[in-house]
DNA sequence: AAGCGTATTCGACATTGTCGAACGCAACTC
DNA sequence: GAGTTGCGTTCGACAATGTCGAATACGCTT
């Protein structure tokens, strides 16, 4: 692990959480001398990864990170497959559809198909949700015991709403059920008033590479039986296109 | 400039251009020993900035970059203003609307309003276009002589189509006209069959912070007079909301 | 089974980043 | 308007750190 690179990424991470920060704030949060942080910041700035507000001198993320993000999406085979099947799933379920991948303890949304009712909706590509509080995250974690252990070892689970599962054992119990059905649900655990239903996506090597699912108003729970089937089918179809031999894969 | 951080970002940049690369390819392109690149790569990997394909061992960008990109968009005041006015501009012009910012020699799209005809269109947020070959880029460069000098000093302009302006003097001449009208046009200079029209956006300090414009099929050139006015108005409205005292600002 | 082309590990060396201190600058305060 | 405080930034000596060549391990082909 190269120290300065690690520090640079940690700077980006802090900036990600706090939007705009002064050099001294940044240094305080990282527990590093300001001059050290300054050197790294200037390097990041030269590449457009961060930029400094002319008026306040505070630092924030720069346009170069956006460029990188877009290229990541283009390289993902999963995404191109998800686009096709999301459309169908949205039509069949009448709900917005999200596809996501796992990074450490969070789900990153890589595709978002708006509800097919024609209303204006914010694109959600790139947003992150704690894995333990989302249907997508649970669908993936159920088949990734190592990632789950790592997540639980890291510290207490963050509570998002009163419904968030923050007990490790309770989460494990839920995930056992998820693995049995290849279907994960979430009711107001991340956002009040919102529920989710998701299924895991596997690739040719039989490992979970993502999950696809629907988002619906909590009051519309439970969805029709056909909807459960539609989510599982979307996940299975994408998995097959990625070369997965079976769906679902048996965990462990 | 911290060497290892600089190298890390260069690695990300190469990965951005080439999608997936083996360690030796990557090392060869950067003219660095493989072991040096490997150390940096492993650090980036630990943070999810890059990931390694299990089968081929090749490296590619990871989900963490996508997360960063999304947060960058959220911090941009310009973007939230652009969303409102893009909608109006799309309605008035009947065209797709793009808003972009400048990084070095490229325009990064930070908002994309699809053509209001209801057809399915790929979201274009995050894509990059060489500044000299786009209406958005010209609109900004006309008011940023320093950036223009830097761009021209860096080397020959990249040709995208037969229409791309690759002569520095010719570009300067065009930009003088752009600065006079506060309106930049582009006809098939980046993509054959596509034309653009854009106007610069200024902030409270009177500097260019972005540009907004429309994309239309080259065969539909020239747009109606009202459309020219609509583009300028959108740029002026956003500039005013950002605190700009005047629009356009006089260059130099 | 042998050989090649990979990625990866290791360790010695000196290059390089680090950190404290000093500087410059602007915005307040009295 | 002089003094003061709180910034960001620059500088340079030191040694911690990243670098690179060589050695190892791995997987694929022949």
TrEMBL record, chains A, B:
<dbReference type="InterPro" id="IPR014757">
    <property type="entry name" value="Tscrpt_reg_IclR_C"/>
</dbReference>
<keyword id="KW-0805">Transcription regulation</keyword>
<dbReference type="InterPro" id="IPR029016">
    <property type="entry name" value="GAF-like_dom_sf"/>
</dbReference>
<keyword id="KW-0238">DNA-binding</keyword>
<feature type="domain" description="IclR-ED">
    <location>
        <begin position="64"/>
        <end position="244"/>
    </location>
</feature>
<feature type="domain" description="HTH iclR-type">
    <location>
        <begin position="2"/>
        <end position="63"/>
    </location>
</feature>
<dbReference type="InterPro" id="IPR036390">
    <property type="entry name" value="WH_DNA-bd_sf"/>
</dbReference>
<keyword id="KW-0804">Transcription</keyword>
<dbReference type="InterPro" id="IPR005471">
    <property type="entry name" value="Tscrpt_reg_IclR_N"/>
</dbReference>
<dbReference type="Pfam" id="PF09339">
    <property type="entry name" value="HTH_IclR"/>
</dbReference>
<dbReference type="InterPro" id="IPR036388">
    <property type="entry name" value="WH-like_DNA-bd_sf"/>
</dbReference>
<protein>
    <submittedName>
        <fullName>IclR family transcriptional regulator</fullName>
    </submittedName>
</protein>
<dbReference type="Pfam" id="PF01614">
    <property type="entry name" value="IclR_C"/>
</dbReference>
<dbReference type="InterPro" id="IPR050707">
    <property type="entry name" value="HTH_MetabolicPath_Reg"/>
</dbReference>
């Amino acid at each position: 692990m190269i120290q300065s690179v690690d520090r640079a990424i940690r700077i980006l991470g802090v900036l990600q959480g706090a939007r705009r920060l002064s050099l001294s704030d940044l240094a305080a949060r990282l527990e590093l001398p300001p001059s050290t942080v300054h050197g790294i910041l200037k390097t990041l700035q030269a590449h457009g990864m961060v930029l400094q507000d002319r008026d306040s001198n505070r630092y924030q993320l720069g346009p170069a990170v956006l460029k990188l993000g877009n290229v990541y999406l283009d390289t993902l085979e999963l995404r191109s497959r998800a686009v096709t099947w999301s459309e169908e799933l949205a039509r069949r379920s009448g709900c917005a559809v999200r596809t996501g991948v796992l990074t450490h303890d969070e789900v990153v949304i890589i595709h978002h198909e708006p509800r097919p009712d024609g209303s204006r909706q914010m694109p959600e590509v790139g947003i992150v949700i704690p894995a333990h509080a989302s249907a997508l995250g649970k669908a993936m974690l159920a088949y990734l015991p190592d990632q789950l252990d790592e997540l639980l070892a890291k510290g207490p689970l963050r509570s998002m709403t009163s419904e968030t599962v923050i007990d490790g054992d309770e989460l494990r119990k839920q995930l056992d059920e998820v693995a049995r059905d290849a279907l994960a649900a979430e009711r107001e655990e991340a956002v009040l008033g919102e529920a989710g239903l998701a299924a895991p996506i596997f690739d040719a090597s039989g490992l979970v590479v993502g999950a696809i699912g629907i988002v619906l108003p909590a009051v519309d729970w439970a969805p029709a039986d056909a909807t459960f089937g539609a989510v599982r089918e979307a996940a299975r179809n994408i998995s097959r296109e990625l070369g997965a031999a079976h769906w679902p894969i048996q965990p462990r």
